[in-house]
Design a protein that fits this description.
Elements lengths: L2 H27 L2 H23 L34 H37 L1 H15 L3 H12 L3 H28 L2 H8 L4 H9 L5 H23 L12 H7 L9 H28 L6
Helix pairs in contact: 1-7, 1-11, 2-3, 2-11, 3-4, 3-6, 3-9, 3-11, 4-6, 5-6, 6-9, 9-10, 9-11, 10-11
InterPro entries: BP-dependent_transpt_permease, MetI-like, MetI-like_sf, OppC_N
Membrane topology: Multi-pass membrane protein
Protein name: ABC transporter permease
Length: 300
Amino acid sequence: MSLSQAETVAVVPEETGGSLGREAWRRLRRNPVAIAGAILVVLFVALALLAPWLAPYPPDKPVGQVTPTSIPGPSAEHWFGLDDLGRDEFTRVLWGARWSLIIGVVSLLLGMAGGFLLGLLAGAFGGWVDSVVMRLVDMVLSVPGLLFAIGIAAMLGSGLDAVMIAIAVVNVPIFARLLRGQMLAQRRSDYVLAATSVGVRRRRIVFGHILPNSLTPVIVQGTLTLATAIVDAAGLAFLGLSSNDPSIPEWGRMLADTQRYLSSAPLLAVFPGLAIVIAALGFTLLGESLREALDPKYRR
């Protein structure tokens, strides 16, 4: 087999990947769960991006009078009512979506970058490099994710940066193990063996063929991880490990602030709680649907 023939064999999975993508898109369009997840995700992202223009009031300024025993509920002027400091709850939920999206996306990108680097090293080199990387990954995965994130955030100090770094570190081993497994599976493929047998450079095989054909599961996992990142960010904020800036409303901290008023104003906990559930549910439904659409085991 000549070098050109080996390169042709190596390109076959990429061409097949194009048809796989079209077939996956066809299945997604016919999947009501995927449509529901996409609608929730689009709604969440749109509200987060348009929050400065949709919010009727500043998120950190009191706009009404409240007392510890009398907190106004929903009304025509304040759709979700007022919080314990007289701030508009609807405005703060909208801005909370914006900050949740920022924290989720930044922590996801950082976690994917770290996991990509470790997974690439383990999958491309194998041998002792793979063993060292995987033992480090196993050590991190042996600790419950949220507990590990709490420890990192507490060590770094409260703030948005600490929350994003903590969530990112927890997600690194997930992406590293997934990419490493996909690359090891691709290394045993016929097109890789053919290219290796005719002398194609290892770097070209890894970056030109193995890595591109290993990224699809990582992207799908990113969608699912974004859902957990939003929940983890809310959990860390609920524990007081996030920013204390009143101009940065976060759903988790909103839940924590309403604990004293659950008997007199329970809706103050309902609205941010529902927002967390809906945002996480949207990304979870979409991610699971993407996994089913791209996984050959689910083809009919």
